[in-house]
Amino acid sequence: MSEELRDEVEAINSIYGDDTLVPAGEPLAYILTLPGKRSSLRLCFSEAYPSEPPAVLGTHHSSGGRKGSGARDLALFRDVLGSVFVPGAVCLFDALEDFARRLEEEEGHDEPEAQPQVPIAAQPPGHERDGRRNTAEEPSPQIDMPASDTSPPQWTLSELLVDTKSTFIAHVAPVTSPAQARQYVQQLLASDRRFRTATHNMTAWRIRGADGLVTYQDCDDDGETAAGSRLLHLMQLMDLWDVMVVVSRWYGGVKLGPRRFAVINAVARDAFVRAGMVHDKDKDKDKEKPKKKGR
C-alpha cells in the first residue's frame, strides 16, 4: 500500500466515520460506504495509485429504499470519479463530496432526514467542555437563528491534509460583516455533521468597510490555543480583506507539537490560493514594467 493511500484511508475515516473505507479482505481492495449510508461499493486500488484511478468493481450493499438505487449510485459514483480524478492526486474525498452534491441535485433536495438549518447547540462554535468539543449523539438544545437574507456561503476548500494521523481541511469565503462571518460558521456546523464532530474548528476573518475607515478583525481558537490568532496573522501578512477562513482538525491521537501551526496555516493558505484571493506580486511587478519596443 502506498503512503498516499494509507493517509487517504485515515483521512476518509476521520471525517466520514471509522467504517467508511474498510479493507475487503483482498490486497488493495476496499469497501466504500457512500454518504448517507445508502449504498456501499467495492473498490480496488492498483500499486500505482494515485497515478492510476481506483477501479469500481460493483455494488457491495444497497439500502437506498428504492428499486435500482444501488445501480444508480454505482453509475453516479463512477461518473463522478472519472470527472474528479487527476493522475498523481488522491481523489476519494473530492469524489465523495461531488457524489453527495450531485445526488442532492438529482433528488431535488428530497432527503429522508433533512438536517435542521439551525445551530445544533446554544453554545457558540468555540465552546468546549473538558477541553474537547461535545460531540455526543444525544439531542442538543437548539436555538432559533434570526431570519436573514444571507444566502449560504460559496465555500472554497483546501486540499485535505493528513499529518501523523490528524486530518486538516480549510474553508474560505468572502464576507462583508462580522455578523455574516459568524452566521457562515453556524451554517457550516449546522449543515454538516462531519464538521460538528471535528476536534477543533478554528476561525479568523478580516473585514474592511466600504469607505475603508472601519475595519474588523477577529479570530477563535476553538480550543487550539493561539491557532486563531496565527490564522489572523497569516491573513495580515497576505493582506487579505473581506474574507474568512475556517480550519477544521480531526485529532488522530498523536500530538504534533508546534508543527501543527504550520500545518493549520498551510491548509488555510492553500484555500486562499484556490479561491483566487492571493495575488502574485512578481506577476504584478512584471505588468508594471514598461515593455521594450521592438526594432
TrEMBL record:
<dbReference type="InterPro" id="IPR001498">
    <property type="entry name" value="Impact_N"/>
</dbReference>
<comment type="similarity">
    <text>Belongs to the IMPACT family.</text>
</comment>
<dbReference type="InterPro" id="IPR020568">
    <property type="entry name" value="Ribosomal_Su5_D2-typ_SF"/>
</dbReference>
<dbReference type="InterPro" id="IPR016135">
    <property type="entry name" value="UBQ-conjugating_enzyme/RWD"/>
</dbReference>
<dbReference type="Pfam" id="PF05773">
    <property type="entry name" value="RWD"/>
</dbReference>
<dbReference type="GO" id="GO:0140469">
    <property type="term" value="P:GCN2-mediated signaling"/>
</dbReference>
<protein>
    <recommendedName>
        <fullName>RWD domain-containing protein</fullName>
    </recommendedName>
</protein>
<feature type="domain" description="RWD">
    <location>
        <begin position="7"/>
        <end position="106"/>
    </location>
</feature>
<feature type="compositionally biased region" description="Basic and acidic residues">
    <location>
        <begin position="126"/>
        <end position="136"/>
    </location>
</feature>
<dbReference type="GO" id="GO:0006446">
    <property type="term" value="P:regulation of translational initiation"/>
</dbReference>
<feature type="region of interest" description="Disordered">
    <location>
        <begin position="104"/>
        <end position="154"/>
    </location>
</feature>
<dbReference type="GO" id="GO:0005737">
    <property type="term" value="C:cytoplasm"/>
</dbReference>
<feature type="compositionally biased region" description="Low complexity">
    <location>
        <begin position="114"/>
        <end position="125"/>
    </location>
</feature>
<dbReference type="InterPro" id="IPR023582">
    <property type="entry name" value="Impact"/>
</dbReference>
<keyword id="KW-0810">Translation regulation</keyword>
<keyword id="KW-0678">Repressor</keyword>
<dbReference type="Pfam" id="PF01205">
    <property type="entry name" value="Impact_N"/>
</dbReference>
<keyword id="KW-0963">Cytoplasm</keyword>
<dbReference type="InterPro" id="IPR006575">
    <property type="entry name" value="RWD_dom"/>
</dbReference>
<dbReference type="InterPro" id="IPR036956">
    <property type="entry name" value="Impact_N_sf"/>
</dbReference>
<keyword id="KW-0346">Stress response</keyword>
<dbReference type="InterPro" id="IPR020569">
    <property type="entry name" value="UPF0029_Impact_CS"/>
</dbReference>
